[in-house]
Amino acid sequence: MTTANILLYAMLAKLAFVLIILLHVAPIMAWAERRICSWMQNRTGPNRVGPFGLLQSVADAVKFIFKEDLVPAHVRKWYYLIAPGICVVPAFMTFAVVPFGPVIDWNGVSIPLQLANLNVGFIYITSISSLAVYGIIVASWASNNKYAMLGGLRSTAQMISYELAMGLSLVAIILNFDGVDLMEIAVSQGGPLMVFGREVSFLPNWGIFHQPLAALIFIIAAFAETNRLPFDLPEGEAEIVAGYHIEYGGMKWSLFFMAEYAHMITASGLVATFFLGGWQAPGAATLLTQLGVGAEIFPYALAGLQVLAFLTKVVLFMLFFIVVRFTLPRFRYDQLMWLGWKVLVPLALANIVITAVAIAMAVR
């Protein structure tokens, strides 16, 4: 088999793997949210369709597919129809540069477990993720509804404000690991924690231990960017009925639903990559050695464990999204903007300066 064929088949396999995860995250997370919410509120939750209610999301999906596709007469039709696609496509594209495993060797060909191995991954993420706001703007304007417009205006201001804090928080990580390639950042987090050239053997070399403030800022901004509680002001039911998607139903509404969960899994993948070691799995090599895994399959078994470690970190952070949703109340809009501009942005700028000074002193 030629190198070109190996790379082609590897790309198709990686693409299928990522698409399967992204397409299934919405129904699985919808079920998980309802079940976890019911446990937290001492209720039952979905438990009728399938074992433990697992098929409830499938029933909902079938309902959306066969629901009548209405287009209200007062909307701006073509913009109204393309808006859900503008929301969901950037959510899928952003995950392309997230490395979910190491570089493996197959018949002498190096295959990175990452859809797009870009050496400007950070710039790609900030560029593509910012496009999602246009889908919300177009949906709110095309709906020709005052409540949808209010939701769109809220979302525009919110996402632009917190994009700045999110990007600035990652600058400190880039300074710390000296690169913008996400695969290189994940590789740099292997081994024990290194602080100013000294080893701290009981902690992994993860970004959260180097930059705890940047991690906090990024996580808060991720909640705001995904419009999740306590930052779901664009969908404030008590104030603006339903927000920017008030005029949408059926599969068009479910695309907004899917985009939100795709943004959540992308944000979780970025948190894992920048702050939780990415696909690094401390102790995995030692475990395989103790199990007596043969040298021929050792690198592939290790890569499998590392992919599993990455997925575990993503799932845990997705569960954190759910727990926060049913724990914290919604902010007022003035509190939301105050937190973004007067707290997170100054803290992120101060963190960049402190990190740069610390690195300069360490080099000397």
Structure described in brief:
By secondary structure, the protein is mainly alpha-helical. 66% of the residues lie in helices and 5% in strands.
> What is the strand tally?
4
Strand content: 5-15%
- End-to-end distance, in Å? 51 Å
- What sort of overall outline do the alpha carbons produce when their principal axes are compared? globular
Report on this model:
The termini are far apart. This protein has 364 residues and is mostly helical. The mean pLDDT is 85. It has 14 helices and four strands. Helices cover 66% and strands 5% of the residues. Helix 1 crosses helix 11 (250-275), helix 5 (132-142) runs antiparallel to helix 6 (146-177) and helix 9 (212-225) runs antiparallel to helix 11 (250-275). It is globular. The strands form two sheets. It has a two-stranded antiparallel ribbon. It has a two-stranded antiparallel sheet with strand order 3-4. The protein has helices at 3-40, 56-66, 77-94, 121-129, 132-142, 146-177, 182-188, 207-210, 212-225, 237-240, 250-275, 284-290, 298-325, 333-363, and strands at residues 103-106, 109-112, 192-195, 198-204. The chain has one domain. A hairpin with a 2-residue loop joins strand 3 and strand 4 (198-204).
